[in-house]
Amino acid sequence: MRSLKSKPLSTRQAAREVAIGVLGFMAGDPERIGAFLAESGLSPADLRGVAGSPAFHVALLDHLINRQDLLIDYATQAKIDPGHVVAARDILAHAGSED
Fold first, then answer.
1. How far apart are CA 99 and CA 97, in angstroms?
2. Higher per-residue pLDDT: 98 or 51
3. Is residue 11 within 8 Å of 87, Cβ to Cβ?
């Protein structure tokens, strides 16, 4: 799947943008976000406080990656290569707390 956005990710900012896009995608469907919240132990009220956290972004991307159907749906909707989600996860996981 190639598109205008198929250039490899290389920055934390680009990785955060992917994570924020995934959050919007997940939040757009009660079943999708509900499954993530149940898995993570978070409540809907918790989202505002953790939405900017790198650890939250990694957990969100992990959830999407582990559900290939969701990964493909998101990548198709966002018009990006599914590998960008995996790359974003890796960038954020290795970025530590440096921001």
1. 6
2. 51
3. no
